[in-house]
Amino acid sequence: MTRTNKPLAQLKTSATRLRRHVVQMIARIRVGYLLQGLGAADIFATLYFDELRHSPTDPCWEGRDRLVLSAAHNTALLYATFAEAGAIPLEALETYTCDGSPFEVNASERVGTLVEATCGSLGQGLSVAVGMALSLRRRKSASRVYVVLGDGELQEGQVWEAALCAGGYRLDNLCLIVDRNYMQVDGHTDKVLTMDPIDQKFAAFGWRALVLDGNDISALSSAFDLARATVGQPTMIVANTTPGAGIEFLAGQLAHVAYISADEAARALKALEDAA
Fold this sequence. Notes:
By secondary structure, the protein is α/β, with parallel strands linked by helices.
């Protein structure tokens, strides 16, 4: 139930295993949020297997850190993380998006208490996280709140209201990770609405702002160390990720919903096996 401080090599192995699950899950249904899952695997491996205090067998443990997935459609990766952590059976991944399965495309309360908040409408997660962080502080809890936000969500006004509140309340138990992959449903984010400089905008709202390579586990781990050591400010991390990261022939593709054939899935799994 404490931070693990796992070796870098072990975290890289965990990220590879998450990518393998993501490919297998999307390959079963041939279409889905494949590129986002591959791109953010290093973030989730670092968060769940090194940074977060949590208990897979007791998801309601009061002393846990909270993780809110605001980009709630990136569930192949989220469920894979739960399975690798031992919170759900690996076999449950085979039911992803099946009729009657709680493991829907958008993570919801149907999964149970493992999902801290249902965030089907994009832009809500940071507001929820701010409320959690305020509540924990008032209870004098040592628990922290982490929220993963898609960069396209920054176009929602609600995000900036929440950012203003977090800075104003000096919520140093809150850490935001922006998965900066330049991809949203309407295409490249800059072609929809330019958002840079993201870090400077959050800094102006009272946040400690960091920018790093979101596929660099060492950099992510160091950033989380800085976030925990920061007093009087929430921390936000612009994590620049590559869609499809870890698989050369998919890396850099921009497709909000990606199609993958059986042959492509086999190639992807072979690439991950070779890289392991």
